[in-house]
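Worked example 3. Consider a protein that binds adenosine-5'-diphosphate.
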Amino acid sequence: MSQTTTGAHPDATSAPSDQALVHAVNVTKAFHGTEVLKGIDMDVHRGEVVVLCGPSGSGKTTFLRCINQLETIDGGRIFVDGDLMGYEDRGGTLHRLPDKRIAAQRRDIGMCFQRFNLFPHKTVLANIIEAPRQVKGTSRREAEAKAHELLEQVGLGDKPSAYPAQLSGGQQQRVAIARALAMDPKLMLFDEPTSALDPELVGEVLKVMRDLAKGGMTMIVVTHEMGFAREVADRVVFIDGGVVIEHGPPNQCLLNPQHPRTRAFLSRMRQEEAAHAEAVVATVTGKASALEAVAAPDDGAAPEEAAGRPPSA
Ligand SMILES: Nc1ncnc2c1ncn2[C@@H]1O[C@H](COP(=O)(O)OP(=O)(O)O)[C@@H](O)[C@H]1O
Ligand SMILES: [Mg+2]
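Given these inputs, the predicted complex is written out as structure tokens:
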């Protein structure tokens, strides 16, 4: 199977000149004749955390899926660690690599989605060792030792024997992150990893991601969590309509956006963040009053008495 790409950028055939781990040049992609990526250029350096944001339907997921070749591309080039993803370049013409070669390239890229997609009939431990065992042929003992380490890292050291259904969404997403890390990826792609979670569970997943970033992992994160972007991202990239409209350090991009569409997007995000904060307060308050109702004595005694402590004077 071979494929010629069209519309290649003059530079598109060049491998990364610097040390960029991800080097995407003029990437185009259409679905049924509708172009959803219209020439994306992006470099991500080793150890860099890039937050990708933009309105729904702007092409963020598609771009991530092109990086790890869950989607073919129509034009341009994507290099990961100097390797042209999905294709072989013969004299400027791209030929699709055999599936086996693509699978080998994808092994080095971890991906976490909005939905965690854990195997429901397998324990947490079995979920994590599955890929190293099946794909890399790692010994059971080695795979399990690493899985226990990773579970500690994501704060779930006590859960190896649990089944996904016994875990909260936040815990399941942390298992999914551990599962991706079990393959020792050089790059992690996150596609709205917290957007399916109850608001009070978002923080625990972001914490794991923040720790991962601090540990030097190269990450591309699609998220609407602007707090995370401000704190953790080295760079923010706005995509709209399949093109990068603005990018830069979070302080510049989030506090002083230049493009009207970026400004409009951010103002919408701020409204959502405020609503989100209210939802967290409502959930926490709701839980607190439920607890109080359980703890409250019927005779109207002060809470201190109910808790067996002397009432304060
Ligand atoms: N497999 C597909 N088939 C057809 N259209 C698709 C497919 N995947 C995505 N699209 C379309 O491509 C556009 C970009 O989608 P997506 O990359 O999911 O955007 P985002 O992640 O930014 O919300 C949307 O209009 C979407 O409907
Ligand atoms: Mg998406």
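Take a moment to read the result before moving on. The longest helix spans residues 260-295. Residues 28 and 276 are 34 Å apart (CA to CA).
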